[in-house]
Amino acid sequence: MMPGNLKAGAILGYAVLALFIFVSLLPLWVALKTAISYPQDIFQSTTRLLPPRATLGNFQRAAGLTSDIVLTSVNASPINFVLALRNSLIYTSLVVTGQLFFSSMAAYAFARMRFPGKDFLFYAILASTMIPAIVLFIPNFILIKELGWLNTFQGMVAPSFFMTPFAVFFMRQFFISSPRELEEAARLEGCSPFQIFWKIALPLQRGPLATLAILLSINAWNEFFWPFLTGRDESVRVIAVALSDFLSQTGAGTPDWSGLMAAVIMSIIPIVIVLAVFGRQIVESLQTTGMK
Amino acid sequence: MTTTMIPRRAKVRLPDWAVGYLFILPALVGFVLFYLVPTVRALEVSLTDWNLLRAPKFVALANYDKLLADPTFWNSMWLSLCYVAYNIPVQTALGLLLAVLSDRLARNVSIRALIIAPYLISNVVAALLWLLMLDPLLGLTNDWLQALGLSRHGFLSSPGEALISVAGISTWRHTGLTALLFYAGLQSIPRDLYEAARLEGCSEFSMFRHITFPLLRPVTTFVIVTSIIGSFQVFDVIAVGTHGGPAESTRVVLWYIYELAFKFNKMGYASAASMVLFTVLILVTLVQMRVLRADHSDLD
């Protein structure tokens, strides 16, 4: 039998949990509500959780299409968010492909091979996570500028393309704890080290690789500071930067909230899908990042 | 090409150490070009006066001298410190509370997936969502405050409230991650300790105080150290939500360095400021590791 005060405590506990989840999700609901509202309605219906009438016109506007919405405000500067989404997709694919491939190669070497300075290099890479981004961004910006790579994908991607300390650390743990027998057998068969890595060791880590790919993709998709410094031109501008620029263009007036929120919803749809499908992997892998 | 065909081809065999270096070569190139060299270069640039147009002029420690006497820089450090003070205690306490609650009441993974959702959304989107939520005219928050009989607030548009509002946005986004890390830590505490305590007639609160809290120390240290380092470097929400304003009330250290480097092209001075920030963060980390006794778990 549960004592009365414990039961009351449990009810209070559930209430706190529910309140927390409510506060976590409320802004997303308000964003969705605003995105499907006619711009002229949003001032009248601030406290209502549903719009008086719904429209998909804002999404059409955010995609650069024509819609039935007539904007009277001067602050309605059109931005093609579809182009920004495309750029985000290119940026994310490039960064994640490079990081996954090169970081797992390095992680495999750090886990399996012997070479002078191995431990020193591994810890040096780990220690580099302590360097504040701004320390690196100033010289990296100068370098990219000197190369003439501002406003190009190669300039935006280069600094994070070859490795990220987190990915090296993450994959190394899995390679260390996986059995060596298959790799030994393949080596006796005369396979080259790269073949052993590519055809045996790496496929065995399909699960961790997929998880890592998800985490790195979410990170790259959300990246703001570096693309904000190096990729402001519309042809390469990613969604996070485009959203920020769209708001800045408003100046002191009231922003085009319904258009902006439609773009926000478009930008988080991929994340919502990934969370719905891979929720368990994301939760479990984030849990272990704190554990060492 | 199948693996069985390959051995037939005669090949030069590289020594093991060379193979190792080849495998880490791309990562090492990335590390050297974009981490190691820039760190050294930042130090080098910090000793110059350089606006990117003319050649850098060596000025030795002049930037550092100027920086130590620059009230704007120290004010920005102070604002960052205030920001950390608004952000971290609330976020850590809420995260711990949530972790304990979901560990006791809702161990289902989908609950944790919902809790982590704000963290998977970018800072930029978090800032935009809360700009709307906190808008003085059409924000839901103000309407609800009014409905409760409280006064309306300017939040991000008020100099007295902007910094704490930005901290609130970060707290909204990061509490879920903090909770998740604490939750993982809770899983490593042996359940029979709680069973024994319950048999002894301990209350929930005294179990938390005498079992959970001491045994979570390594996780707590990790959470606090990493979140303070992150919090000191808040940028995105400021860049989208306040631009350092209103009335410079959110000009935290990263925004100040950003303006020096990328608005006013003072590369040398900005680099010097970034090196000072780097040093401060290292000191802060060392002190915390000491105070919180990171390597010690009390479980032995």
Task: Explain what this protein looks like in three dimensions.
The complex is a heterodimer of chains A (292) and B (300). By secondary structure, chain A is mainly alpha-helical. Chain A contains 13 helices and no strands. In chain A, α3 packs parallel to α6, α8 packs antiparallel against α9 (193-204) and α10 runs antiparallel to α13 (257-289). The mean pLDDT of chain A is 89. By secondary structure, chain B is an all-alpha fold. Chain B has one domain (63-292): MetI-like fold (Orthogonal Bundle). In chain B, strands 1-2 form a two-stranded antiparallel sheet. In chain B, a hairpin with a 7-residue loop joins β1 (48-49) and β2. The longest helix of chain B has 35 residues, at 71-105. Residues 1-8 of chain B have low confidence and may be disordered. Classes of the chains: A mainly alpha (292), B mainly alpha (300).
Q: In a nutshell, what does this entry contain?
A:
The complex is a heterodimer of chains A (292) and B (300). Chain A has 292 residues and is an all-alpha fold.
CATH architecture of chain B: Orthogonal Bundle
Range of helix content of chain A: 55-70%
How far do the termini of chain A sit from each other? 40 Å
The CATH architecture category of the domain at 83-255 in chain A equals: Orthogonal Bundle
| Total of DSSP H or I helical runs spanning 4+ residues of chain B | 13
Question: Between the first and last Cα atoms of chain B, what is the distance in angstroms?
Answer: 54 Å
Count of distinct strands of chain B: 2
Residues in β-strands, percent of chain B: under 5%
CATH homologous superfamily title of the domain at 83-255 in chain A: MetI-like
**Oligomer state of the chains in this structure:** heterodimer
Q: Within the CATH hierarchy, at the fold level, what is the topology of chain B?
A: MetI-like fold
Radius of gyration of CA atoms of chain B, rounded to a whole number? 25 Å
Tally the beta strands of chain A: 0
Write down the overall mean pLDDT of chain B. 90
Strand content of chain A: under 5%
Shape of chain B: globular
Helix content of chain B: 55-70%
Order the strands across the largest sheet of chain B as they lie in space. Answer: 1-2
Number of domains of chain B: 1
Low-confidence stretches of chain B: 1-8
Structural class of chain A: mainly alpha
